[in-house]
Amino acid sequence: MQIPPVFIDVSLEDQAVELRSYFKGLGAEISEEKSPKGIEDDLHKIIGVCESCFKEGNEAEVELVLNDIVSIMVLIPLERCENIIMAFCEKLSKAPGQKLGMICLRVLWLLFQSLDERSTIRYNVYYHLILIAKQTDQVKSVYQDIDRLKQQFAQCPPSNEQLQKLYRLLHEVLLKSNESEQAAKVMIELLKTYTDKNASHAREDAIRCIVSALADPKTFLLDPLLSLQPVKFLEGELIHDLLDIFVSENLAAYLKFYNDHKEFVTSQGLNHEQNLHKMRLLSFMQLAESTPELSFAVIEKELQLKPDEVEGFIIEVLKTNLVRARMNQSAHTVYVTSTMHRRFGRAQWQQLRDLLYSWKSNLAAVQDGMKHITATQLELINQS
Q: Which family does the similarity line name (predicted)?
């Protein structure tokens, strides 16, 4: 296959002619002559046929050609190039196969980084990057966390509608990549884009957010969801009742809800056995908050476990780091030293405040003691 030239010290128009000739050689329907309308029309024509080079087994050449196109685009004023960039993104997002998809991901990432941070077109490029990342399972290569994402668009923040569209896609891609914790954070950011005035329109997003949080085996602090306006609009509905149970109720409350609404739980895509497991962990945390010394008998009864399941369950709880405790197997007792609170409200803030003040007082006492010891030693030295 013909190898495209490397464009060095060549005018944009001559680069376009070389690309036209290259794609013509691949059998694309394109003229080798440059357009009388200018370089923008040349690029439009080239991008229109660029998929003709999407052939596996020739990845290095494909990447070189696509990067050549980028090198021309970034030298054209953005106000004359936005439609061309959009067309390029659309073409690359449809590249078939994992290998070609990875190439297109790298090429678009290069384009994204080359664009002025104040340009609105960067949002569109990034959205297509996430589309390709979904196809190639490479979301980590273009998305780190929500704070980094906001920083990338700090100079030109997308509109609320654009953010909502991006967050929905990101949530889907992160879930597909088993990044459930990151997906939950993105969904919460999505719900934050709604105000009191339009929160009622976020019903589907709010339900999706709740279901994702309930299904995530790593998410245990669910209380913050209740303060989101779109979630508040669901009060009185079954999904909100279920969230309330996971926020503050125990295993018995969940079992009653499930027995009354089995079809609803299933219809939301939630797994009853996984729900049971999570509710047992949450119920144990609730017990540990009020009772630092728990007998195996109490755990067995409250969490509806068989006698031979208690020790294994306690070990599993300790592995989560939700609770710090010591198990006395001979005494059939668990001694809890600390636990994560399921709800973090005014009482918990007060408790944290009191703890910090206690630490401060203790440190002051230690400091005073050290000063006294130092003064005594100096006095003895002077006397000698």
A: Belongs to the CSN7/EIF3M family. CSN7 subfamily.
